[in-house]
Every structure is written in C-alpha cells, then in structure tokens.
Amino acid sequence: MPDNLVGRNFTLEGRVAAEVADAETAISRLNTEGTSLVNTEALARILL
Question: Which domain holds residue 30?
Fold first, then answer.
C-alpha cells in the first residue's frame, strides 16, 4: 500500500462493507480453486 494509506481508518456503510467482504471471499476462492489462474494476489490488491 502507498504510505499515505497505511494506518488510515476507513468507514464503510454496512452494504458496502458486505460487498467488499464478498469480493474478498470470491478472490480468495479463485486463488485456491482456480486452475486456469495463477496467483491472483495482484488482482486482489488492485480490487481491494
């Protein structure tokens, strides 16, 4: 993360936080179960 974001607190509405959590779960699932994708950690960092 860029230095200016380190330690910064973000407040998200409940619905937005739920969407972020869903996206995080989906990306994690791709990392563990995806056979045609090789390490999507970079994509996860961009999306989150």
Answer: 3-47
8 Å CB contact between 41 and 21 = no
Q: How many domains does the chain have?
A: 1
| Number of helices and strands in the chain (H, E) | 2, 0
Reported as a single tens digit per residue, the pLDDT across 3-42 is: 677 788 889 999 999 998 998 898 888 777 766 666 666 6
| All residues at 6 or more sequence positions from 23 whose CB lies less than 8 Å from its CB, including other chains | 47, 48
Determine how many CB atoms are found less than 10 A away from the CB of residue 18: 11
